[in-house]
Amino acid sequence: MREDNEDTERNLIQQYARRAIERPESAYRVLLYVVTAFFLLASLFPFYWLFVIAVTPNRSIVDMGLLPKGFHPSVFVEVFETIPFHIYMLNSAIIATLTTIVVLFVGSIAGYVFGRYDFPGRTPLLLVVLVISYFPGVAFLIPIFQLFTANIEFLGVQSPMLYNTPWSIVMPLSALTMPLIIFLLSTFYAQIPDGLEDAARIEGSTRLGALVRIIIPLSAPGFATAGILSFIIVYNEFFFSYLMVSGTGDWSPILHGIFQFQGSQQVAYDLMAAASIIGVVPMAILVMVAQDYIVSGLTQGALKE
Amino acid sequence: MDTRRPSYRLDLVVLDRIERLSETQFVYLMLLPVLLVLGSMAIWPLLYTANLSLHADNVLSPDLVGGFVGLQNYIDLLTGRANPILRRPFFDLSRPFRSAVPVTLLFTLGAVVMETILGFAMALVLDQRFRGRRFARVAMILPWAVPIVIQGMIFYLMFQPSIGFAVGPLNDLGLISASPLANSQDALLISILADIWKQSAFMALLILAGLQSIDRSLYEVAKVEGASRLQRFRTITFPLVLPALLVALLFRTIAALKVYGVVETVASCNTVPTVSCLVVTTWNAHRYGSAAAIAFLVAIAIGLLLLIYLVQFRGEEGGGLGV
Q1: What's the first-to-final CA gap in chain A, in angstroms?
Q2: Rounded to whole angstroms, what are the CA distances from B301 to A20, A240, B79, B197, B233?
C-alpha cells in the first residue's frame, strides 16, 4: 500500500516536472501561488497570534504554542468592562475626523491653487510644503508642547491650555498631514480640463462660483481618497497621540487605552490582545471598503510629490 | 462705487472684491488658511526649536533654557562630550547597540533593505492577474493600516519570553537571547521585523504604481523577439520601475530615520535608543537645549538626504520629486 502511494507520489512529481519543463508558464504559475501564499501568511499570521492570546485565559498564558489554550471569547466583552475602551476608540475616531476635516478644507483650497494656478512664488512655496513633510515629529515637539501647556506668550496673550484636549493632537497632525494631501489634491485638480472652468467664467460665473459649481463636484473622488488616507494616518499615529495627552484624561486616544492593560500588578495579556484586535477592526473595514481609493491615493500622492 | 447699492448684502460685496483681485492677489488670499496652519504648527515650531538648540540646558531654574551658547550643544553632541548627561549616548561606537546614531542607522538599513526586496516581490505578485487578487491585496495592505501601537503590541506579545512562541525555539538555535526584549541587540532586530511587517505593503503599493504605468505592449514586443522572462524583467520591468522604486526608497528611509513608536511599544526607548527616542528622553529630563539640538540634527540629516536625492535625480522623468 505504502509503496503504491510513494509510487503515485513519485509519478505525480515526475508529471509536474515534465509539465513544468514543457510549459514554463505553468511552473511560473505555481511559483506565483507559492509566493502569494507566503505573503498572505506573513501578513495575516500576526493577527492570528493576537487572536490566540486574546481567547486564552490570562492565567494560562504561559509558554504559548501556536494554538490557544482554552477558549474564552467573552474577553472581547471584558475589554469594555475593565476600562471604557469604547471611549478611547471614540476619541481616536473624533481626533481623526477633526483632523481630516481641517486637512481637507485647508488642503483642498491649497491643492486647487497649486494645481491650477501659476503664480510668482509657487515653486518655493511647494518646496517649503515638501520639506515640512520630511521633518521628524520631534523637531516640532518642544514648542508645540509649550504652546499647548499655556507657556507661550504672543503679543501679551497667553497661549491656551490645550494639553489633554483633542486639539493638541489635531492641530499638529493637521499641519504634518497637510503636505501629502496638498500634493494629492493638486495633481487631482490639475487633471480637470481648463476649458470647463473657462466656460463657466465666460457664462458669467465668478471665480468662487466656478470653484463651487465646476471644480468641487469633479474632485469628489480625489476628496474621498484624501479623506480616507488622512483618517487612516491620524488614527494610526503614535508620536503626538502619545505625548500630547497625559493618558489619564478624558480625551486619550486608543493607544493609551491599550497601554492601560499593562497594569501595575499584573499585565492582562489577553485583554491587551483583545483590545488590539478591536482597535484594528475599523481600519480593516475601511481597507476592505476603500481599497481602490487607498491604492490610487498612495500611489498618486506619493509619486507626484 | 455705487452708493445706492444696498450694503446689507455683505456676501456680495465680498464676492465682488474677490472678483476684482489680480490673479496673484487671489491666489495668496486662497493660500491664507494653509499658510496660517503650516506657519503656526510647522514653521514657527521649527524656528523655535532651532533657537532653543542654541541655548544651554537649564535643569534647575524654571526658565526653559539658559544663556545663548551658539553651536556648543551641537559640538558637545558630535564630539561625544554630551554623552554623560544623556540617558543613552548619542554616538558611541564602543556601545553601538546602546547609542542613538548607530541604532537608528542599523534600524534604517535593516528595515529599508528588507522592505524594498519584499515590497518589490509583493508588487510583482499584485501586478499579476489571478483569482482572489482583490482579497490578496486587502490582506497585504492590512498591516500598513494597523495603528503603530497595535503593531508594537503584536510583536511584544510574540517575543515576550514567558508567552511568545518564538522565543524558545529561536533561543535554542542561538539566534536570540532568552529575554530578547530586554537585550538591545535582539530588541532592535525585533523592532526591524515589526517595521518590515507593517511597511513592506507601503513599499509594494508605490512600486505597484510604477509597474502599472509600464506600457504592456513592450512585453509583447519582447516576447515576439524571443526574450526570456528574466530578460524581460531586466530590460523592461526593472529600468522602468526604478524611478518609482527610488521615490519609495526615499520615503521609507526618511520615515525609518524618524522611528519612535514601534521601538517604544515593542521594547522601550531605553533598550532601543533611536535618535527620536533620545530627543524625548532628553526632553523629559528637562534638558531642552540638548533635546532641541538632537532633534535638529535629525532634521539636518534628513534634509541632506533629500538634497542629495533632489540633485541626483533632478529632471529625470517621473523620478524627481517634480515640484
Answers
A1: 65
A2: 51, 22, 17, 26, 35
Question: Would you tell me how many other CB atoms lie within 10 Å of the CB of residue B176?
Answer: 21
d(CA A140, CA B294): 12
- The complex's ipTM works out to 0.85
pLDDT, tens digit (0-9, with 9 covering 90-100), for A65-100? 788 888 888 889 988 988 889 999 999 999 999 999
Q: Does A216 touch chain B (CB under 8 A)?
A: no
Q: What are phi and psi of A73, to 5 degrees?
A: -70, -15
Intervals of chain B under pLDDT 50: 1, 316-323
- Distance from C-alpha of A236 to C-alpha of A242, rounded to nearest angstrom: 11
C-alpha cell at A96: 481623526
Q: Which of B141, B105, B116 is nearest to B248 (CA)?
A: B116
**CA–CA distances in Å: residue B101 to residues A140, A230, B81, B276, B290:** 20, 31, 15, 10, 15
d(CA A258, CA A248): 12
A279 with B299: Cβ contact below 8 A: no
Cut 0.95: pTM above it:
no
Residue contact B147–A238, C-beta within 8 A: yes
Of A141, A175, A279, which is closest to B38 when you measure between CB atoms? A175
Q: Which domains does chain B have, with CATH numbers?
A: 72-313 (1.10.3720.10)
Portion 68-97 of A in contact with B at CB < 8 A? none
Contact B84, B57 (CB under 8 A): no
Residue among B31, B148, B206 whose CB faces A110 most closely: B31
Amino acid code (one letter) for B154? I
Please say whether the beta carbons of B160 and B190 come within 8 A. no
**Beta carbons within 10 angstroms of residue A39's beta carbon:** 20
For residue A305, is pLDDT > 50? no
CA distances from B233 to B48, B214, B230, B238, B315 (A): 50, 12, 5, 6, 25
